[in-house]
Each structure stands twice: as structure tokens, then as C-alpha cells.
Design a protein that fits this description.
With about 190 residues, the chain is an alpha/beta fold. The chain contains 9 helices and 5 strands, in the order βαβαααβαβαααβα. Helix 1 crosses helix 9. The protein binds adenosine monophosphate.
Length: about 190
């Protein structure tokens, strides 16, 4: 596979997590989901988790500095391990990050330092009705109707501008996120060849 540094962007409920996890397994990529990493901090009741929990429960974005610190340390760790010649994935897949333009710009600076440009941004697209259905059936703590509506609003206002940002850089490819997990995975695979 030539493309091995990937971002997954899309509204909550589009299936980013499922697809990202499976793709990372198939291609031996480091999978970084800021949502998963934050939930792990919340469960472990770390200082960082305690700071993030209330914001996450409201469906808002935790601070850029906090998520950036998480992503930076993981990517720097991987890069250092690679340059020491240690075994492990050479590529990565970021899922749920960046979530706004400030994070995208910070990521660009970080990746330029690491000399690891993004190969592809996958945009997963799905109608609001289907997003709502999927989220309501998932039953996560922040998946009740009111919080979901707010998360969709936050997506539209803060995250959706990334579409133009990455399209302008000719990195963006959209995928129809309606259908079976396998069908969607095939659509994504076709973009990586
Ligand atoms: P997710 O699992 O990606 O839907 O994320 C769940 C929640 O974690 C979001 O609603 C945010 O509160 C928080 N979160 C995850 N990723 C980010 C990010 N890149 N920036 C800010 N907050 C985030």
C-alpha cells in the first residue's frame, strides 16, 4: 500500500471508528482515535480524564492543547521508534482528529517537523437521519438525542470546514458511508491503492 498516513473525517455516527480500526489491522497502521484515548483517560480517572469528562458528556470539543498533546506524544513515539529501527507500524491512521482548523494547522506543523506528510484524508458521508439512527442504537454515554444533536451541530460548525481545507490541498476523498461494514471497507480500500 502506498498510502499509509491517513486521516478519517466525518460526522459522529458515520462509522469512522469501525472502519479505521479494521483498516489499521489489515494494513498494520497505528490507529489513533482521540475519542477512544480520551474515554480511556476518563475510565482511568486520570487528571486529564477528569478535565475532559464533563466536556465530552455535553458533546463539546475538549481543548485543542489537550488533544494535541495526546496525538503529538504518540506520533513522536512512533517516529522515534522507527528511526531506532524497531519493528512496528510505519504508517498511522488518525480518527477523530483534527476536529477544527486550529487542530489541522497544529497537525500540519507537527507532521512537517516529523517529515511525515498526510497521504490521504477519507471523508465518510452519511445523511443526518441515518447518523441519528446509528448513534441512538449505539448507546454510548454521550449518545442521547439532545447531546447527539449538539455533536452534529459542533461537527457542522467546527469540523466541516476541514473538508474545504483538505480539498484545497488535494488530499480529500469522499466515501459513501451508507451500506454494510464490508461494502464501505471496500470503497475505502479502493482509495488506498
Ligand atoms: P468521538 O469518539 O470521536 O466521537 O469523540 C467523543 C468525544 O471526545 C467528542 O464529542 C469530544 O468531546 C472528544 N473529542 C474526541 N476527539 C476530539 C478532538 N480531536 N478534539 C476535541 N475533542 C475531541
Amino acid at each position: 500500500m502506498t498510502k499509509q498516513r491517513l486521516l478519517f473525517v466525518g460526522p459522529p455516527g458515520a462509522g469512522k471508528g469501525t472502519q479505521a480500526q479494521q483498516l489499521a489491522l489489515r494494513h498494520n497502521l497505528l490507529h489513533l482515535s482521540t475519542g477512544d484515548l480520551l474515554r480511556a483517560e476518563v475510565s482511568a480517572a486520570t487528571e486529564l480524564g477528569l478535565e475532559a469528562a464533563a466536556v465530552m458528556a455535553r458533546g463539546e470539543l475538549v481543548s485543542d492543547a489537550l488533544v494535541l498533546a495526546i496525538v503529538r506524544s504518540r506520533l513522536e513515539q512512533q517516529s522515534a521508534s522507527l528511526s531506532r529501527g524497531e519493528p512496528g507500524p510505519s504508517g498511522w491512521l488518525l480518527d477523530g482528529f483534527p476536529r477544527n482548523l486550529a487542530q489541522a494547522e497544529a497537525l500540519e506543523a507537527l507532521l512537517s517537523d516529523l517529515d511525515q506528510p498526510i497521504d490521504l484524508v477519507v471523508l465518510m458521508e452519511l445523511d443526518d437521519d441515518l447518523l441519528m439512527q446509528r448513534l441512538l442504537s449505539r448507546g454510548r454515554a454521550d449518545d442521547n438525542a439532545e447531546v447527539i444533536r449538539h455533536r452534529l451541530e459542533v461537527y457542522r460548525q467546527q469540523t466541516a470546514p476541514l473538508i474545504a481545507y483538505y480539498r484545497q490541498r488535494q488530499l480529500l476523498q469522499a466515501v459513501d458511508a451508507e451500506g454494510s461494514i464490508e461494502a464501505i471497507a471496500e470503497r475505502i480500500e479502493r482509495l488506498l491503492a
